[in-house]
Amino acid sequence: MSDTSLVPVPRSGILDIDLYVPGGSKAAPGKKLHKLSSNETPLGPSPKAVEAFQATARKLELYPDGSATELRQAIAETHGLNIDRIICGNGSDELLHLVAECYLSPGDEAIYSEHGFLVYRISILAAGATPVVAKETAYTTDVDAILAAVTPRTRMVFLANPNNPTGTYIPMAEVRRLHAGLPGNVLLVLDAAYAEYVRRNDYESGVELVASAGNVVMTRTFSKIHGLAALRIGWLYGPKAVVDVLERVRGPFNLNAAAISAGAASMRDRAFVEAAAEHNSRWSAWLTAELGKIGLKVTPSVANFLLVHFPETGKTADAADKALLAEGVVVRKVGGYGLPNALRMTVGSEEACRRLVEVLTAFMKGAA
Predict the structure, then answer these.
(1) Residue 320's domain spans which residues?
(2) How far apart are CA 77 and CA 68, in angstroms?
(3) Are residues 108 and 89 in the same domain?
(4) CB–CB of 348/279 below 8 Å?
């Protein structure tokens, strides 16, 4: 007879993980929803991706290609990469988890920046390792702070470039300086989820560094500029030895057939991707200027979102969030990132951008 006083106990450290809370998606009753909380593209997916997705409906009885060959081939051709060094996942989140699972152990340390993506901490703790936070400077990754945090126990560094939720980036020269300062047994994980949006001459996603180093990987996603967040598609480019390790652990059918087909079609539709980038460049600049006019500080962003700062008293971020929600505009609170006095706002459609500014203008002018 079993002892009902005993219950299964998770591995040490698992209960230290805070639940990841995604951006809100509901408007106030009677208000049109403008969802600006999850960095989704307002242009939606490529029509070619939609067509490819729909075509899979006639073959739902068949297992997908476990190697996602069609998708990997499209990625390789578009970016000029070796297909054998590409692995695809159920969103880049799965790949980040896999890297941590395969290369971190209890007693190891992994570093990420002060306002880095919350999934890094989750992945590190889930692997039984210890997260180490490196301070940022002006909401931007500080290479010297990361290097100063390296110890003999360090096995991994996560670098979001551009970073979420700040929208800032570091030039490729700084990424190379970071890599040069790391021991060879430390894996540098470059998370380039927002790379397609960046319009800076000194920026690179990391492809060339990965190609020339044995301890660097780069992850990318189809959830942002490609508009395929619902299908959960990510990819990683890395040394063949690292990819071989990840292949041993990933699920055999971790991407469904619709994701593979739609992802390949979207990757090849370069005109659509460029149109999305152009829309973002235009309306990001407009939003930054308009929010500045009403007295709000905006961290300069190269991504498809803005980090907007509010006073600690009076016109606070919490108060602004409530005012926006009441009018159907949903943005992201970022207290969990150590930014309680800021809100992250996606660059949405023209209508959504104008409505966001309209509501915040009224909020800032109203009584405290």
Answers:
(1) 26-44+271-365
(2) 14
(3) yes
(4) no
Which strands form 342-346's sheet, in the order they lie side by side?
297-299, 305-309, 342-346, 332-333
Q: Does residue 5 form part of some domain?
A: no
Q: In what order do the strands lie in the sheet with 109-113?
A: 86-89, 234-237, 216-221, 187-191, 154-160, 109-113, 130-134
DSSP class of residue 250 equals S
- Find tokens 């909401």 and name the residue: 139
pLDDT given at position 18: 67
16 part of a folded domain: no
| Cα gap 89→235, rounded to integer Å | 6
| Verdict on whether the full-model pTM lies above 0.85 | yes
CB 344 within 8 A of CB 301: no
User: What one-character-per-residue DSSP string does 286-335 give?
Assistant: HHHHHHHHTT-EEE--SSSEEEEE--SSSS-HHHHHHHHHHTTEE-EE-G
Which residues, listed in sequence order, are joined to residue 159 by a DSSP beta bridge? Answer: 190
The CA distance from 127 to 319, in Å, is 38
- Joined together, the tokens standing for residue 104 give 């971190």
Let me know whether 286 and 254 are in one domain: no
Query: Looking at this protein, which amino acid is placed at residue 251?
Result: G
Mean pLDDT, contiguous 10-residue spans, the chain (368 residues): 70 72 68 94 98 96 97 98 98 97 97 96 96 97 98 98 97 98 98 98 97 97 98 98 97 96 98 98 98 97 98 95 96 95 98 98 84
Q: Hey, what amino acid is at 225?
A: I
- pLDDT at position 11, please? 74
- Angstrom distances, CA of residue 231 to CA of 1, 66, 91: 46, 16, 8
pLDDT the model gives residue 3? 65
pLDDT of residue 65: 97
**Strand boundaries in the chain, DSSP class E:** 34-35, 86-89, 109-113, 130-134, 154-160, 187-191, 216-221, 234-237, 297-299, 305-309, 329-330, 332-333, 342-346
- Residue 120's nearest CA partner among 23, 18, 37, 224 is 18
CATH at residue 35: 3.90.1150.10
**Cα–Cα dist 259/164, whole Å:** 24
pLDDT reported for residue 367: 58
